[in-house]
Every structure is written in C-alpha cells, then in structure tokens.
Amino acid sequence: MTVIAEVAERFADAGVTGWLHAREIDGPGEVAVSADTPVVLASVFKLSLLLAVFRAAETGEVDLEGRVTLEAGARSGGPTGIGAMFDQVSMSVRDLALLAMTVSDNAAADALVDLVGFSAINRATASLGLSTTCVVQRSREQTASMVRDAGVADAASLAPLLTDRRVLRTLSALRPEHTNRSTPREMTALLAALWRDEAASPESCAAMRRLLGLQVWPHRLASGFPFDDVRVAGKTGTLPTLRNEVGVVEYPDGGRYAVAVFTASVRTSLTLPAADAVIGTTARLAVDHLRARTP
C-alpha cells in the first residue's frame, strides 16, 4: 500500500475527510493528499498573523514591547486566555502574540489584527508566493457570521446548536470561500520559510519558532511523535466538524519536516478523539515515509 493510500485509509477509519501535505524542509521530498484544495484555516490563521506582526516590528510600524490595553466587555471573547478573563488586561504586543499562538487566545489575536490590519497580513503571505492564503476575518467576525447564519441572537444561543447538522449547513464560516483560507501545501511552504529564516529576519524567525514550540495542545500533531528527543511545534485550528494543525517536526539527527493536516468530520459531536488523533497518525505516516527515503 502506498503512503497516500494508507493516509486516506486512516482518514476514513477516523470518519473524516482529510487534506495533508508534508515536506522535507531541507530537501525535495513531499507527501500530498489533496494538498492544493482550499481549506478553512480556523485558528491556523494566527500563523499568518504572527508573520505580519513580526514583519511590522522589523519596519518599525509595531513595537513588540509596546503595551496594549484590552477592556473587559470591549474585546473578543473565547474559551482561553484574555478572551476568558474578567477584567481589564494590559500587556505587550509580543505577549499578545504568545497567547495567540500558545493557547489560541482569540482576544489577543484580534487585538493584533486591529494593530497590523488585514492588508499587512495578506501582503506578508503573498510575498512568499502563497496565492490562495487569505485572511479576511477576525475571530469575532467569524463568530458573528455564525450567529447571523444560524439566525440566533448571540454566541450563547448558538452554542447548543453547533452539533445540529441543519444549522451547520448554513454556516459560511465552514466554507473556505467565505472565511480565512489556505491550502495544506501553502501552509507547509510558510512553515518551511520560517524554519529556513526566509520568511523574515533570522531573529524574527527564531522568535516565531519559539512561540510555535510553546503551544500547549498535545492531542493532534504532537500525539503522532511521542518521543522525548523529537520536537514538535505547531498551531491548531478548530471549528464545528473541523480540526486542523500545521507544524514542524524536528528529529535529533537534523531531519526537519513541515506538516499540515486539515480534517472535516462526518460526525457533528464537539468531542471526537479519533478525529484529533488521526492528525498525528497521518502526520507520522507521512514523516516516516519521508525519512525512509532519505539516504
């Protein structure tokens, strides 16, 4: 069985449709499964945002040590970080970036979008030749679109409906043409550029790699590489039925592999361990294949 067939089989066993791309960062090898299909980024859009923030810092448009104050009730909500806090928060731009990447803090990310703007985000990715990648919504606008599409009053009213297939069919946030989007191949290209110090200055790339390495979620990409001497850095993304992660796997022998896995589940349950785990499983299959072909 080919690696592509095996990856497809694992996706099917987990009850998901999957899109995957894995590449050697320092070589030509790749594994591609529908890798040029546009996909919904969900919170993976924060990777493009991170690049724009550090690019803006290099030109002096943004001060990474400058402080931003987010008032309670006037910032984006969310289940983690500042989005879940009660009171006024003031912190540096670089600490907002840390929260956006490590715990996928929506309030922190949206504050950074407010700071740099959509044009800067999309210019940054376009400069790397990523023609499909596009960021058009903050997290709060994505939530607002789901509330509007579902015909309910607010996010609290939406939450109980997010396992209802009839409601999910109405949500434009689950269709790439209406929201933040990319392809698996373009996401691994962005990661490879970061790891080769080509996306920004070497100092900025190192700082971004550090933030990606601090992500706290171990249940997707990292679950496929349960070894003390293998490092995994990544960014997850989640919306109803959608589970994603993009990241880099680094082996002690110097092997470096960029991987992007996007999935859409047949089931509408909010908790689907098999759909989470298959991201790590298929990433491991792809990376093992790339390592096996290395002399």
TrEMBL record:
Pfam family, one: Beta-lactamase2
Origin: domain of life: Bacteria
Molecular functions per Gene Ontology: hydrolase activity
Domain Beta-lactamase class A catalytic positions: 21-263
Keywords: Hydrolase
Family matches, as InterPro entries: Beta-lactam/transpept-like, Beta-lactam_cat, Beta-lactam_class-A
Designated name of the protein: Serine hydrolase
